[in-house]
Amino acid sequence: MAPSSHLDRLHTNDLEIGATDAVQQHFARHVVSTKSVTQRTLDFEHSRPRWLREMAAEATGVFFYVFPGIASVAAFTINLENPLGVTAFGSLFQIGWAFAIGIAFAIITCAPTSGGHFNPAITICFAIWQGFPWRKVPYYIFSQIFGAFIAGMLLMGMYWPEIQAYKAASLAKGLPLVANGGVASILCTFPNPKQNNLGYLFFVEFFVDSFIGIVIWACLDPANPFVSPISAPFVIGMAYANMVWGFADISISTNLARDLGTRIVAAIFFGGEAFSYKHYSWIAILVNIPATIFATGYYEMLMRDSLQKIGKGHAQHEHGEEGLQRHLTNTGVMETGSTSMIPGNQSGSDDYAIGKREV
């Protein structure tokens, strides 16, 4: 099949084994031959409820993002006083990379099914700005929180002997279990013992979440020439890592689902103080939403170029080609010869799977 065939868009968002050229060169190259698809398989896949697939993908994606991150935190926290030294088991640098790579894996693995939100604030922003159905928002958010909860429970099981030993040692020294650096902080965020200024913590969380929100929105902008569908998962992951490296010592959450799901686990094993400690939990859980709405609104109002988006074939004018040509004429764009904004006058376009699921 010629490279100029209509396989330039993989509408199923499924990449076959060995089809590494499918995104870059728009044709499939089979390295490993695959068996034919049976009708039974097609019937089974067709019968699966769409909502169930989306819920599974969102929960799995959050798990892939949270589990390696908190596992890295556990290795770092529990082994702080190990005779081999901190660097043998972890650092904030390692923790940042664990979250970053986990986010990239989550997007690569699950975004083709659900759109790869993995954050209640991102889901809400897609509903506000991009027409994501509001009816899907509740079960997306539930799935995201559930994925983080499962990650926390599994970590507790896998690190149970070490966590119990660390807990006993902390109690023997009179150290708090719920605080930044305490055993409960393996699962979720707590302020440092001397941090009592909630306004300051609110500002830090708002800034960090806004920073990440703008980067995510820029990565998902199809008119952005600097980010491809291949690089987007890693760029988004690096945005999270940047904020971990810069502000984890202060206390940041970055994601309602990541924090609330694991905070519930912390409350199960270490008591209700996981929610009441210094009255901080509402900052970790809720600030992410207004901060991300602010960030994405900032991008939509001041940085979005919808004409470029239309010109690259990723959107249409609400009144079709006639409405677009009328706009170009009224604004003088047609007179300057910039007719390349009309779909069909530009060649090539890349489809973003991330965040595009609507039906």
Q: What ranges have pLDDT less than 50 throughout 5 or more consecutive residues?
A: 1-28, 335-339, 346-354
- Structural category: mainly alpha
What percent strand?
Answer: under 5%
Overall number of strands: 0
General description of the model:
The chain is 57% helix and 0% strand. With 359 residues, it is mostly helical. The longest helix has 29 residues, at 50-78. Residues 1-28, 335-339 and 346-354 have low confidence and may be disordered.
Fold blueprint:
Elements: H1 22-25, H2 39-47, H3 50-78, H4 92-114, H5 120-129, H6 137-158, H7 160-172, H8 198-219, H9 232-247, H10 256-270, H11 273-276, H12 281-286, H13 288-303, H14 306-311, H15 320-330
Helix pairs in contact: 3-4, 3-6, 4-9, 5-6, 5-13, 6-10, 8-9, 8-13
